[in-house]
């Protein structure tokens, strides 16, 4: 049995714990068994269940546990989002950092959902899906204008220039929609989670682990340790009621079951939806998602996949995980960015042949890529992930000997 004091020390890494550096905890007292219970996994599960039921109220069409389709620039468009909503997931349109087409894309998604003639019970003026923004580039004024016509059920924020920007964004969105739009914020470390929870009071925190495809923190941990550490840190800071959604390397029912056990109310998947019938993805890209395996070996975190496309304004602390290709190897062997970019443009002209290990086109994907072997509808993906997770949890519980 670990003494309470050393247990707390290991969880909080005093005095450098983020809850201290953000000024959330100024003093604390160790009170024997209360502290042990405070950190107990059983208690965490109770918080998890409470958070999950709040999510059911906020998104009445969504099934529990939550499956969210991450906003992926150019890839998560109206068809994917509408398909995800229809089957009880929470789809996020990718607003990214160029929000020019935002209103048009929301309208198209609404039309697709309505065309099915399905009635989606929600407040009349709230559309049953979310929109994701990359804060360092998104134009808040344009976004607020679009929200005059449509009120999305949720927004998803990611990658601000500085964390404090999220507070302004959160407040302005809440003001605009009278709190009808819930605020999801994707973060990737314990310190970010605690600071963001304290300053911005999001409705949901999306915890992005190191295995995630696309952009993420250069310095990051896998979801298996990151999520429970964040859960503990939030609890210590008195903010245990924020629902957590796990992201990064989760592609199937086993991943969802694991996330639930870690204390998440659900998952956000990006890479898995690259193989959805409804994603707006080039065939060459999607073929690579199906072909690739062994994600720890065949993907890499790098900034080269942005540099070759001339995207140079991501804040310093981010890079992106993608399948390894020739752009990466050439950069490693010293090729200049100018030369690499020139070759990238030539690869675009090659169309679907521009992808692949000898190709050059950016192929963002997470380490779970090897578990994805076929293209399926969003409906099949969501139903199978939910069903398999429930089965895994049931079997695991039956197999446990207490
Ligand atoms: C191709 C691709 C594009 C992405 N684009 C975005 C984006 O535009 N905005 C964002 O917040 N996250 C983006 N992400 C990251 C996701 O939000 C999420 O963290 C990630 O997909 C989770 O890991 P997974 O890909 O292993 O499921 C992207 C991920 C991928 C794979």
From TrEMBL:
GO terms for molecular function: nitronate monooxygenase activity. Keywords: Flavoprotein, FMN, Oxidoreductase. It comes from Lipomyces tetrasporus. This is 2-nitropropane dioxygenase. The keyword Nucleotide-binding does not apply. Transmembrane segments: none annotated.
């Amino acid at each position: 049995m670990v003494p309470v004091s050393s247990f707390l020390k290991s969880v909080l890494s005093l005095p450098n714990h983020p809850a201290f550096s953000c000024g959330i905890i100024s003093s604390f007292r160790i009170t024997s068994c209360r502290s042990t219970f405070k950190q107990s996994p059983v208690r965490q599960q109770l918080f998890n269940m409470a958070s999950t039921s709040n999510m059911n109220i906020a998104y009445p069409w969504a099934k529990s546990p939550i499956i969210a389709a991450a906003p992926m620039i150019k890839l998560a468009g109206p068809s994917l989002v509408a398909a995800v909503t229809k089957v009880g997931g929470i789809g996020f349109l990718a607003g990214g950092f160029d929000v020019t087409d935002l209103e048009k894309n929301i309208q198209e998604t609404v039309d697709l959902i309505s065309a099915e003639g399905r009635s989606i019970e929600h407040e009349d003026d709230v559309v049953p899906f979310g929109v994701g923004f990359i804060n360092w580039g998104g134009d808040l004024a344009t976004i607020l204008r679009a929200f005059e016509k449509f009120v999305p059920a949720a927004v998803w924020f990611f990658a601000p220039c500085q964390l404090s920007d999220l507070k302004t964004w959160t407040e302005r969105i809440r003001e605009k929609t009278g709190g009808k739009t819930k605020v999801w914020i994707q973060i990737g470390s314990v310190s970010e989670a605690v600071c963001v929870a304290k300053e911005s009071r999001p409705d949901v925190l999306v915890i992005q682990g190191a295995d995630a495809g696309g952009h993420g923190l250069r310095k990051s941990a896998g979801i298996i340790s990151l999520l429970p550490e964040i859960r503990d840190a939030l609890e210590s800071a008195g903010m245990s009621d924020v629902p957590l959604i796990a992201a990064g390397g989760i592609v199937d029912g086993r991943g969802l079951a694991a996330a639930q056990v870690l204390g998440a109310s659900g998952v956000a998947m990006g890479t898995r939806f690259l193989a959805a019938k409804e994603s707006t993805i080039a065939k060459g890209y999607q073929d690579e998602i199906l072909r690739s395996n062994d994600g720890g070996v065949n993907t890499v975190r790098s900034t080269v996949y942005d540099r070759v496309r001339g995207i140079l304004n991501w804040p310093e602390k981010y890079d992106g995980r993608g399948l390894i290709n020739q752009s990466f190897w050439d950069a490693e062997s010293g090729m200049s960015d100018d030369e690499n970019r020139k070759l990238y443009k030539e690869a675009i002209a090659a169309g679907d042949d521009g992808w692949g290990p000898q190709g050059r086109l950016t192929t963002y994907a997470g380490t779970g890529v090897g578990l994805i072997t076929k293209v399926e509808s969003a409906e099949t993906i969501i139903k199978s992930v939910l069903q398999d997770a429930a089965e895994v949890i049931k079997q695991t519980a039956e197999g446990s000997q207490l």
